[in-house]
Amino acid sequence: MLVFFCFFAVQNYLFMIESMDILITKTERSKLQDINLENIPFGRYFTDHMLEADFEKGEWKNVEIKPYQPLLMDPSMAALHYGQAIFEGIKAYRGKDGKAYIFRPYDNFRRFNASAHRMNMPVVPEEIFMDGMRQLIKLDSNWIPSQKDHSLYIRPVMFSTDHMLGVRPSESYKFLIILSPTGPYFVKPMRIAVEEVYTRAAKGGVGYAKNAGNYGGSMLATTIANKKGFDQVLWTDAEEHKWLQEVGMMNVFFIIDGVAVTPSLEEGTILEGVTRDSVIRGLQDMGIKVEERKINIDEIVAAYQSGKLTEIFGTGTAAVIAPVQELNYQGIAMTFQTADYKIAPSIRKWLNDIREGNIADPYQWMYKVN
Ligand code: COI
Fold it and tell me: Which terminal Cβ of the chain has fewer Cβ within 10 Å, N or C?
């Protein structure tokens, strides 16, 4: 594989990365002219190109950017049967200088490979993940929406491709990156219900990995909650259904007596959210105390009843900051006037300001594409 080096600037820093020789085949006709990028729904439209690479006989090969297209698959393909499939969610924005920037892509790269390890899959080398993403976005950079709260959602995904029905780790895998211009994930504050029947993750399980099964396994509980008028469930632990984990597919924050409290990572049952980490740093910079610890639903109910629980919000790449207007536990509705929220909108504005280049980027989170 031909590798050469290139220099590029990220804010004021000069980084050197390996730049890979990727075969690029451009589309003959862009679909962009058929799409209005304003008020675009989440995840329905895809850009002109995709990145594809194959893992075979212990090495990555066939690294290629090509027109977005369907895949050919064998009915016995292992991922369909045994679920070795992981993914990431990352966002690219257009900066004030008109250039494309990706938000904290190295954090997602590291998490992707942590998920790969947990699912007994090969790691994807940095030059394929990072340089592939950079070259793909450079090619499709016209697809980055400029409208407020819009972005280009980046979806890296890897799955097993062996053709056989024996239960064992696959020997071959496919890695893809696809891009989707997108608007806000949630358009209104959420109503959520504490889940006490189904479980998303248990200690020793795969809760911290971004594997497809975590999302597939959550759908029944969410559909039942939807039928009762809720948008998402608040996941609880497997043994007691008391200890809080995540809200839907997001990390969750509670503001109790002015302190931001969020479930800790050490049990391995929740995703190590990149937005979660960004929010923690932003809150601390604003002088707000943050506690990462175990949180029991009884503590939340007591805090609500005493008037100390003032805000609940979810955080995630897709949703960014999603305020909660109702938390329902055993039929008791804890309601909130999200229009009065102070902390959730402040942290959301801070993040958006960094992403849009309205303020300095204090942690060099924005990775310049070209
Ligand atoms: C994300 O926030 O990026 C997610 O992965 C959540 C969902 C769209 C699957």
Answer: C
